[in-house]
Amino acid sequence: MPQPHPAIDQTPPTTAEPAPPKALSLEERLTLVNTTMTVRLDEAAVAYEVNTAHIPAEPVDLADVVTVPLTPTLQPPPEPYPTPVAALLQRAHHRLLTGGWCSGALVDEDGARCVLGAIRIEARGDSGLEASAASVLLDAIRRKFGDVDSVPSFNDAHGSGRVPLRMVDQAARLADARGI
Q1: From residue 85, how far is each of 29, 139, 166 by CA, in Å?
Q2: CB of 106 closer than 8 Å to CB of 113
Q3: Cα distance between residue 32 and residue 161, in whole Å
Q4: Residues 32, 108 within the same domain
Q5: Is there a domain that residue 81 lies in?
Q6: Domain range for residue 99?
Q7: Number of domains the chain contains
Q8: Which residues are registered as beta bridge partners of 107?
Q9: Alpha-carbon distance 107 to 116, whole Å?
């Protein structure tokens, strides 16, 4: 004899009435707003990147942007390079940092010096050493800026000493790497 199938209960299940929405606390609302704003800012950042991707931009050298006040009396001279030209360029760099930089003259009325004036005073009368230092500096300048006529023209082409001082420092490292 066939077994009767149990009856399937056709009554709909009763669900509990949903509780009325509870008001969010201040902390919960702030978290919700923070999450929403983070999503919006992320979307805006992506949209900005997409919209500006076609615009050519030159990289920024942070040495031109980030500056700190110099306190010459608190800056001891760095450990000297072992090679004469590198050491001369390093002393010239330190003199420009502590004594000031100028353009248009070897030395201005306040005692500030141009790049060549700093090299000349630090060479202490050794014209061969002075010429070697100026040559290495011009080489470092040309590596970075292309065809430049001379160290004085490069120095005078700048309105502040940041770039010329940075080039003297780079030239000192270049001279040290060359062993001169």
Answers
A1: 66, 13, 16
A2: yes
A3: 51
A4: no
A5: yes
A6: 62-178
A7: 2
A8: 113
A9: 10
3-state secondary structure of 165: helix
Q: Which residue has the tokens 């919209």?
A: 51
DSSP character at residue 55: S
- Tell which of 6, 37, 57 closes a domain: 57
Alpha-helical (H) ranges within 9-83 are 26-52, 62-65
Nearest Cα to Cα of residue 168 among 119, 125, 126: 119
Q: Which residues contact 75 (CB under 8 A, 6 or more apart)?
A: 94, 97, 98
Q: Are 131 and 145 in contact (CB under 8 A)?
A: no
Tell me the HSE value of 157 on the side-chain side, using a 13 A CA sphere.
Answer: 11
- Segment 70-121, tens digit of pLDDT: 555 556 667 889 999 999 999 999 999 889 999 999 999 989 999 999 999 9
Angstrom distance (rounded) from CA 142 to CA 137: 9
Q: Does one domain contain both 137 and 67?
A: yes
Is 40 within a domain? yes
Say how many Å lie between the first and final Cα of the chain, rounded. 112
CB 126 within 8 A of CB 85: no
**Per-residue confidence at 139, pLDDT binned at 50, 70, 90?**
very high
Which among 141, 114, 143, 126 is positioned nearest to 85, based on CA atoms? 126
pTM of the model: 0.60
- Shared domain for 66 and 150, answered yes or no, is yes
